Every structure is written in structure tokens, then in C-alpha cells.
Sequence to fold (712 residues):
Amino acid sequence: MAGRTKDHSRSRWPQRLHVVTGKGGTGKTTVAAALALALATEGRRVLLVEVEQRQGIAQVFDRAPLPYAERAIATGYPGTASGGGGEVFALAVDVEEALLEYLDMFYKLGRAGRALKKFGAIDFATTIAPGVRDVLLTGKVKEAVTRTSDGRRVYDAVVLDAPPTGRIGRFLNVAAETARLAKMGPIKSQSEGVAAVLRSPVTTVHVVTLLEEMPVQETADTVAELRRLDLPVGTIIINSAQPPLLAGGRVTAAEVRRGLVAAGLPADRDVVSGLLAEARGHLSRREVEVALREELAGLGRPMVELPELPGGVDLAGLHHLAGVLAG
Amino acid sequence: MTAAVLEEIEAAEHLDIDDLLGDPGIRVVVCCGSGGVGKTTTAAALALRAAEEHGRRTVVLTIDPARRLAQSLGLSDLDNTPRPVTGIKTRNGGELHAMMLDMKRTFDDIVAAHTDPRRAEEIFVNPFYQAMSSTFAGTQEYMAMEKLSQLRARDDWDLIIVDTPPSRSALDFLDAPARLGRFLDGRMLRLLLAPARAGGRSVFSLVTASFGLFSKLMDKILGAQLITDLSGFVGALDSMFGGFRERAEQTFRVLQAPETAFLIVAAPEPDAIREADFFAGRLEDERMPLAGLILNRVHEVAAAEIGVAEASDAGAALREENPAAADVLLIHAALLARAERERSVARRFTTAHAGVPVATIAAQPVDVHDIDGLRAIGSALALGR
Fold:
């Protein structure tokens, strides 16, 4: 508990709501999970939320599918310089349950709310007015960010594994989407409350990318869109970065042959030319990566690079990434 | 090289892409898979090959192409009509057309086709229609299938190749038509419609007492203005219900027809392979014809004689005396480790779906966004070795 009263304003990640987006396939769920662990390592009590009903968090932590309930899923490394290890809780938001919960909270429906399900009202509401769905999801996130118990915040930070870059603007721009439908009434005030939190200094939106052309292009597009919508752009997180091998940019066949002989490995022509071909592939990728990294730097946001995990993502790997994020 | 990879992905038969593209009985190829696996590029490469090598009059329907790929296909804007692609080889008499889906316009067209102009105008200005036609999760999928259905019905093309939307799930585009149908058929909508049909003013006025709680609730939650808009929307849509459902069913039939072939595109990564696995199972359940798996961005080594451990040990040992060779060996170790991981991930699919043929595309250092690059992908796919 001691860690929870700490001031996190000097952390690399001072905000309380961290929205993590990225193009599909860039590993945003992994990065969101690693960020939650990094914040827990600073001693914070963290809620990691997913809203797309794909059970990505359970997969990353190698757990059974998560219910719609906040469950402790991991702890930050304790005893680090920054303080005791905090905890990560996870929540997979279910739209139907969120709607029922919302109705219950505001209208004291009790079990009568379940009747809505029977009438197909929920399917209906989220189909005909897609903005309603996003208001419910972001509303649940806002509730977790602002929740208090005995006058203290329940969570020091919330990390949202958000929809991918293609949908993030619309998802976060809830008030505008619902304003088209509801010019007054409870949905409107609910969405305005959410919008206020999303545009406050409490929130930051991080974009995950790979050093590949399409993800970088989408990152640039997304940063522009978020700025246009007046949403706070956080850190650009480059995932799966390759180690900077052959920084000198050249190697000769003679060098490779000599090295192979010295190491007692086969050094015939095919092996040497094969290795050189692989090295050339690496160098041409590096060249592309240098240009893409510059393009990202031009966006004027802080950048962090996470190394590719050679063994794929497992819990040890997640902690490693968390360590890199913690800085 | 690719053959070696395939051999190691045990039990996988080679997918002969030319057999598929050259078969006059195949009229529709649907490329599906999760987001970020290179579906659009693959669809474009297949379409180009069908036109150039098989002389087919081909159209490729893309959903959300990368800007530079769109430019090289001559697609400068959302356009919704197929445009001829220039700069392709036409010696075999083939043609290539490309179009980018405009979801909203497609929806508008359906509305216009199924109702009178006055009604259509009412629908277009309704805020619910505007929200649904541009943001309904599933509208893009539904409209992609609708457009496919339209293109097929016109019978102007020998072959239609469709790229599917970058959905939350690869299954969304299969489910969207049914979901929309279910929605339009839903009990909820009937309840809302009853008064509209009766010319009643309040949406819930004719509903029985047992519905009272629900009615009060809706008023309370949604507010009166919203219910008026909703009622207007539902009333206006009423005339078109049959049309929507019929079309959804028709599209589903096109997808089940033997003239259709599904190709699953996946990268050899856990998420993409898991989606591919779900999708293959689903196609089987729906009796939709799965022609094969295209494994994109496969990494290959050129010096297979040296193992991962050998290479990384030697790399560490040579660090001081021969840093360039050390780096080359570490590059090899990382590449081989990656290739092995990819193969074991891909095996999850090939063992679960042993009968599904597979073709691979090697990882490229640079993205493909011109006709030459698409042609190279097509040839690599066809050669397969």
C-alpha cells in the first residue's frame, strides 16, 4: 500500500490512463501488458483492460479466458529502486455486461435489466447506434480510472489495450459520435463525461508500431488524427526492434571464412555465400529501418524501442519488455 | 527454398495457384485472414497474375489498401466503380480492373434501389442511418459482401478477387450479413415497428402492459428525441426489410457456390495462425470451399548447415578477433531461430487442417507497392520453389 501514495509525476509514464493502440499485428496487446507490468514495478496498482472481446490478455499471460471481473494477474518486480512491487489486475470488458452494469448503476434496475437481454435490446442498441457501444466501453474505462474507495483511488493507473489504429479515433471520440444521435439525455451526459477524462492530462495515447512501412505510415496517420481530435498523443513504441548488428555496414567473404574456420564450423563456398546473402538481407532491412525511424522521430513524440524476443512472448519476456519500458 | 520450408511444414500439400487462377469454373476468390498479414497485397498479386498469365478479365475489390499500393493500381480515391489498371501485360488477352470499397455509398445505393426517392431521402438524413451506414461494426463487412454480390450479378468479369476488411476477427465478414439480417428480423425492431405501422405517434403506445417496464426504461435511457429519430428510421427502413434479407441470403449462397474459392492469408505468427485455424474450421462448418492457405512473410535461411546454438556460440567467441564475422553469425542465428519458430507456429495449422494445401511468400525487406512487385509475388507464389 505504501507505494500507492507515491508521487508518479517523475515517472516516464506519469499519466493515470494509458491508451495503447497500433496497427493489427504490431503486438499492441503485448506492449499494453508489458506497460502494465512496468507501472506495477514502480509500485502502482494497475488495471489492464481489453475491450475487443478477443481474450488477448489471457493469451499473453498464458491464462484461461478472463471473466468480466477484475482479477489479479501479475505483480511487478518487487524491491526495485523505484519502490515495492505493485499489482496488475486484468479486465476483459463485455459489452452486454457493461450495459447491464451501467443501467443498474444509473437506474437501479436489478434483475429487471436482464429482461432487456431477452428482448434483444442490447444487440439492438449496440447495432443501431454503434457509438453506444464505444460509450459503454470507454465509460467502463473512465469508471475504473476515477473509482475511489474510502477516499483513495482504487487504481493508480489503467492501461487500455484499445482498438487498432484504424478505429481508434472514432473509438476515443465518443462524444462527437453520440452527439449525432443523442442531443440530450443520459447517453449524452455520459459520453461528455468520458470525453472530458480522455482529453484531460490524466490520459495519454501511445501508438505501437514495427519498423515496417505500413505500420509506420499508419502511426503517422493516427498521430495526425489524434491531434486533430485534440486527444493527447503519448509515446511512439517501436516493437520487435532488431539488434544493431553489422553497424559498419560491410563484411567480406574472407572475413566470414576466417571466422568460420576459427570457430571450427563448415566454411565451404555455399556456407559463406549463404551467410553473406543473409547479411545482405539484414543490411537492406536496416537501411529501410533507419529511414522509418527518422520518419517516426519527425512526429515529435518520445520514442521507446522494445527488442524482439527471440523465443516469442512468454512471461519472462514480458517482464523483460517491462524493464525496458520502465527505463 | 520455399519447397524446403514446405517439406518441413509436415503434411502440407503444395497449393497450385495457377490451377486455381486458370480454372474457368472459378469465378470468385475471397482472400481472408486477420489484419496486418498482407491480404490486400496478396489479393492484388493474384488478380494481376490471373489477368496477365491466364488471360482472364479480372477485377480486384480492395477494402483499405495502403496509399502507395492504391496509387499503383490507379486508385486515387474511394470510388466504388472498377477502373482499369494500366501498365499490365495484355498479351494473353486478360484485363485487370480494381476498385476500392466505399462503404457508405454502397449502403446508400441499396437504400435507393429498394425504396422510392422520397423515402430514401428521409432515410439518408436520419441520424441513425448516418451513424449506422458509416460506423456500424459490421457495415464494412456487409457492404464488401454486398459489393461482391453486385459485381458477380453483373457477370462482366471472368474472375472477381476480394480482399476482406481488416476486422476484429477474420470471421466478421461471414457473420455480418447474418447479423444484419437477424437485427432487421429482431423482436426489438418488430416492437418498435408496431406503432409505426399503425401510424401511432408514440413508439410504444400499442405494446401490451407486460412491455410497460421496458417502454418506460427506453424512454428514460434514450430520451424522447432519440426515440422519435429511431422510430422514423425504423419506419422508413420497414419497406426495405425483405430486400436486405434477400440480399444477405443471396451473398451467402455465392460464397457457398463451387465457383467460389477461399484463400486464407496468414503470417506465421501465433495470432494470425490462430485466426486462420478458426476460419478454416468455420468455412468447413458452413460448407464453403477453402482452396488453401497462403503463408506470407516467411523467413528463410541460406546457410542451413549451421545451427542456432553453433552460430551464437561462435558469434560470441569471435566478438573480439573478428567482429564482422561474429555479427554475420549472430544474424544467421536470429534468422534461423525465427524461421524455426515460424515453422512450428505454421505446423499448428497444417496438422489441424492436413488436407489444406499451402503456398508461401518469403518475407521482403521492403513493402511491395508497384505492379512489378506484385508480379514478382505472383510468380513466387506460382513457382513455390
Q: What stands out?
A: The domain at 2-383 of chain B is CATH 3.40.50.300 (Rossmann fold).
